[in-house]
């Protein structure tokens, strides 16, 4: 089958907002793809594409339905905060390139690059997704020039401390893995993917800056 076709899914909307134009990032939504029993051996799915080497497992196109989930409102400072993964945005730094020392709120310290959230390549991510895991896998697609990605990274680092023994957090630099990010339908930044250790469960995707409470809710209730 054509792996570039959209897949069946469920759209979770945390905020009632007017739908943006194509290729414009959305704030606070997540897509839960639904995979048929025949596809249950590999639950990875995105809004339209998946890992290239395993794309043949994806089902045909279908529609989506809207469902609300409990989540705290996005703080005012974070509203409308996202970046577009487009050729016009890439290469225009809005934050310092070496913004990796991320402060963990409440911890009184800064965390060095890759200390808790390791940066992985497309190949490494595929191995993690396909391999056997006992904990959920959370993947942060980001860019160093994207301000909202830095804010999201702070929450991700906080969660990496909180779920140190019960979840695995990794990140993918979309500048270094641009084609792969496009194949994964990453259009808005930051984009998070959540993979359950249960191979029979679907992957969950969020796009844009979302509240840390929503991330916790997905980890604890959706995976």
Automatic annotation (TrEMBL):
Keyword Protein transport: no
Gene3D superfamilies: Glutaredoxin (3.40.30.10)
Tagged with keyword Transcription regulation: no
Subcellular location: Plastid, Chloroplast
Molecular-function annotations in GO: protein-disulfide reductase activity
GO cellular component, one term: chloroplast
InterPro entries for the chain: CITRX, Thioredoxin-like_sf, Thioredoxin_CS, Thioredoxin_domain
Superkingdom as given in the UniProt entry: Eukaryota
Family of this protein: Belongs to the thioredoxin family. Plant CITRX-type subfamily.
PANTHER family registered for this protein in UniProt: THIOREDOXIN-LIKE PROTEIN CITRX, CHLOROPLASTIC
Protein name: Thioredoxin-like protein CITRX, chloroplastic
Originating organism: Aegilops tauschii subsp. strangulata (Goatgrass)
